[in-house]
Automatic annotation (TrEMBL), chain A:
This is Lipoprotein. It comes from Pseudoalteromonas shioyasakiensis. PROSITE patterns: PROKAR_LIPOPROTEIN.
Length: 193, 514
């Protein structure tokens, strides 16, 4: 029995190798380069992970995305089901269940300092109806990071993993805002239930 | 008794009986009779025989004669002995010079450089000591933190520069402007491991290019994030009448890469030796031109390259890839025949070159089968997109490989006389990427502009677009842009249409952005 439990613990730890998610909120909005196309993509995200409670919405539109343009482009509304600020620390296995994605950021994709949101989206393009899931990582670079970008937000990656836009991914400099801030009453992830 | 004159004349005549020598000059070493060197020299001079080298201590001369001078040589009286002056070549390199397939594809071989241009290469540095790269006329910027410009531990910048300006000197490779006459300025922004060094950002590097008097800026680099400040800096340089060229990116998907996707920059996609769009080459609405970017043969830092290199020529075909490890070095010519997978006899292929598809049996068995059938050489054609560097048992055969697309091209050209060469090149190698396509466009831009210095940068840019070799969908498309850049067609286009253009920043790609 002990050996089995130890094995489960090791396996669990191996699965959860990403950065720990911390309580924080994000408000993002602006335009960025289209996915290969001539126009601009429009992105807004409002999400929060506070005291273990997750909420938020994402809206996105990229009508000139090169591989979807002929079908009217990519366009969706989404409900956030996972969110958090990625810390530099890996997730502690204490109290964590095997495969629990609520407590960690996507390993090697959403890294320290990025804000990760996971969402269920609903296409608003009548030519490509349907639902799917996706995630996005973004970074607030307006707080003294010398990037020389002349903008204060980065969409590090957004990937739609299923549904009518499965495989669509985009990244770029947001001409607009990405603001990450503390929750009204922040609480360390270590104490999350 | 053998008449010495007769022997000399007969030997030279024998040498000239080989068709390849009949119309060429030939070098011969003449040893003078004892203490008769001076007299022999007088004889040579009075007969207008060119003395290439005088070896006084050995009482000998190396001379060059052609067939018309044969009679003069037979009259010499002070010759003790004579023999051909055999060539000696560098042991670190093959005796061959491969002409990269890309030069003909972009018509760089059809236009003469007229001077007056300076190409600035922003990259990982430049191997200034490379024997196949120019040194005169090449300057660089001070070490901004990435290292000195005249070294290139990473090797990328040296390869890019070689595509633009490698010297035509009978070994190695040649570039678009191959006679030392193109000025270049090197700005090193990548450290030895290829990582970006922030001592100067890209706008600063471009400023250095401008300060150095560059007319064309070549940027085989990029990233997914744009920068409004960076874009403004590039727009400013564009209005200063400098042409900027950058790589479209190698992510193999539809996405932008910067700086290539700024309007002020020509975004370059990559094609292979059969003009097919490279699978890694990004597509976007800002793609403007295409150029060779797959298995481009060019300079790398000295002694950096491995594996022998293989060259296939046939009419207009010119492919380069890797030789089989174990192949004999050298050249053979023969009719090209299809031998399937080489798993069984190909019949009598005496003196022919076997084209054999990869698969089912090891490479060495394919080569052995061809040799058993009388073949003189083997071309292994790949059956997928992966790289093919094969190993065979040491053989007297010439054997090498070609890509899948090249193999299919050769299958359409069976029965034709084909020449294959395997040679060692330790200072030259293949690289693939839109990084390799970019210097083709930069070099062609400089070449064309040198013929029409009165044109503006925008005028040259529009001419390159209008004269490109259309590929893919008719007209503009997101993979090839306006098509494969063409030097001769651009020169002809300007001759016919002029090169008037607005001085404002042009819309990049298909012109529809924003």
């Amino acid at each position: 029995m002990k050996k089995a439990q130890l094995g489960l613990l090791i396996t669990s730890f191996a699965i959860m190798g990403g950065c720990a998610k911390l309580d924080a909120q994000v408000n993002a909005g602006g335009t960025l380069n289209s996915k290969g196309g001539a126009g601009k993509a429009v992105f807004t995200a409002h999400a929060a992970r506070c005291d273990g409670e997750v909420s938020g919405k994402v809206n996105y539109k990229d009508v000139t995305a090169l591989d979807w343009q002929q079908s009217g482009g990519v366009s969706f509304n989404a409900q956030v089901y996972g969110a958090g600020l990625c810390s530099e620390d890996p997730v502690s296995p204490d109290g964590a269940e095997s495969g629990d994605e609520r407590l960690f950021c996507k390993q090697d994709i959403c890294t320290e300092g990025m804000y990760q949101v996971e969402f269920n989206y609903n296409s608003t393009n009548p030519s490509l109806p349907g639902e799917g899931v996706g995630f996005a990582c973004m970074m607030d670079i307006s707080e003294g990071i010398k990037s020389g970008f002349g903008a204060n937000g980065l969409l590090n990656v957004m990937l739609l993993e299923s549904g009518p836009y499965q495989g669509y991914n985009n990244a770029g400099t947001i001409s607009g805002n990405v603001q990450v801030k503390d929750c009204p009453s922040s609480k360390n992830d270590d104490n999350a239930e | 008794m053998i008449n010495k004159k007769t022997v000399l004349a007969a030997s030279i005549a024998l040498a000239y009986s080989f068709p390849s020598l009949a119309d060429q000059s030939m070098r011969i070493v003449l040893e003078a009779n004892s203490n008769k060197a001076s007299a022999l020299k007088s004889e040579l001079l009075s007969n207008n025989i060119k003395i290439e080298k005088e070896l006084s201590s050995l009482e000998s001369f190396a001379i060059s004669i052609d067939k018309t001078q044969l009679a003069n040589v037979t009259g010499l009286t002070n010759v003790k002995t004579f023999y051909p002056d055999v060539p000696r070549k560098l042991m670190s390199e093959g005796a061959s010079q491969y002409i990269p397939y890309g030069l003909a594809m972009v018509q760089a071989d059809q236009v003469q450089y007229q001077g007056g241009q300076k190409v600035c290469v922003i990259d990982s540095g430049y191997a200034l000591e490379h024997p196949d790269l120019p040194s005169a006329g090449v300057t660089g910027s001070d070490d901004g933190g990435a290292g000195v410009w005249y070294q290139d531990p990473f090797g990328h910048g040296t390869h890019v520069a070689g595509t633009i300006a490698a010297i035509d000197n009978e070994f190695g490779t040649t570039g678009i402007v191959d006679d030392h006459s193109l000025d270049m300025h090197i700005v090193r922004v990548f450290a030895g491991n290829g990582s970006w060094a922030y001592a100067s950002d890209l706008a600063g590097a471009i400023d250095e290019c401008q300060q150095a008097g560059s007319t064309v800026i070549s940027m085989s680099l990029g990233g997914k994030y744009s920068s409004p400040i960076e874009e403004k800096a590039l727009d400013k340089v564009a209005r200063a009448n400098i042409l900027m060229v950058a790589a479209a990116g190698n992510a193999g998907e539809a996405s932008h890469s910067y700086p290539a996707s700024y309007d002020s920059v020509i975004s370059v996609a990559a094609v292979d030796s059969t003009k097919n769009h490279a699978s890694f080459s990004q597509r976007s609405s800002q793609i403007e031109l295409a150029a060779p970017g797959v298995n481009v043969f060019s300079t790398v830092p000295v002694n950096r390259a491995r594996f022998s290199k293989f060259n296939v020529t046939q009419d207009s075909v010119n492919f380069q890839y890797y030789g089989m490890d174990g192949s004999r070095l050298g050249t053979v010519t023969g009719e090209l025949v299809d031998c399937g997978l080489g798993t069984q006899s190909c019949g009598d292929v005496t003196g022919k070159i076997c084209l054999i598809e990869r698969g089912e049996i090891p490479f060495y068995k394919k080569v052995e089968q061809c040799e058993a059938d009388g073949g003189v050489g083997v071309i292994i054609r790949n059956n997928n997109q992966s790289q093919l560097i094969g190993t065979i048992n040491p053989t007297s055969m010439i054997a090498g490989s070609v890509t899948r697309n090249e193999g299919l091209n050769l299958m359409d050209n069976l029965g034709k006389e084909t020449t294959i060469t395997v040679a060692e090149f330790s200072d030259h190698d293949f690289k693939s990427g839109t990084s390799m396509a970019t210097p083709h466009v930069s070099g062609v831009a400089a070449l064309v502009w040198s013929n029409y210095p009165e044109c503006s940068a925008n005028g040259i840019r529009l001419a390159l677009r209008a004269s490109a070799d259309d590929q893919g969908s008719m007209g503009y498309d997101h993979a090839y842009g306006w098509g494969i850049v063409q030097a001769k067609a651009a020169v002809d286009y300007i001759a016919e249409n002029g090169c008037k253009a607005s001085s404002n920043v042009l819309r990049g790609g298909d012109g529809s952005a924003h």
